[in-house]
Design brief:
Layout lengths: L1 E6 L2 E4 L4 E9 L7 E6 L6 E6 L6 E3 L7 E6 L4 E6 L8 E8 L14 E4 L3 E6 L1
Parallel strand pairs: 2-11
Antiparallel strand pairs: 1-3, 3-8, 4-5, 4-9, 5-6, 7-8, 9-10, 9-11
Length: 127
């Protein structure tokens, strides 16, 4: 089992930045492909970004490309999501998730591919 805990959410004005963190604990002797998803009220949970198990590859949903950056520090069992130029439409609860495997980050874009989920952290962007 792997436990994931997100932090770093908050209230920010449009154009501002936030950095989310997700710390993994439990069965961390191996590394996992990791992803960030978000869910706005009344909407489905959607893919935001993913990184391969080594961090060598990353993949982004189109609306966040050029604004968000996913990274990881495997020594700290932590994955990050740096969010810049935030927009009101980025308002959502953000979840990190861990998958299994050694494919490129482009493979891990759907919820069903992830085995472990965090509890989420709220991001609110005011206009």
């Amino acid at each position: 089992q792997v436990q994931l805990v997100e932090s770093g959410g908050g209230l920010v004005q449009a154009g501002g930045s936030l950095r989310l963190s997700c710390v993994a604990s439990g069965r961390t002797s191996r590394t996992y492909p990791m992803g960030w998803f978000r869910q706005a009220p009344g909407k489905e949970r959607e893919f935001v970004a993913s990184t391969s198990w080594s961090g060598a590859t990353a993949y982004y949903e189109d609306s966040v490309k050029g604004r968000f950056t996913i990274s990881r520090d495997n020594a700290k069992n932590t994955v990050y999501l740096q969010m810049n130029s935030l927009k009101p439409e980025d308002t959502a609860t953000y979840y990190c998730a861990a998958a299994q495997g050694y494919a490129s980050a482009t493979y891990y874009t759907s919820r069903g591919q992830y085995n472990y989920w965090g509890q989420g952290t709220q991001v609110t962007v005011s206009s």
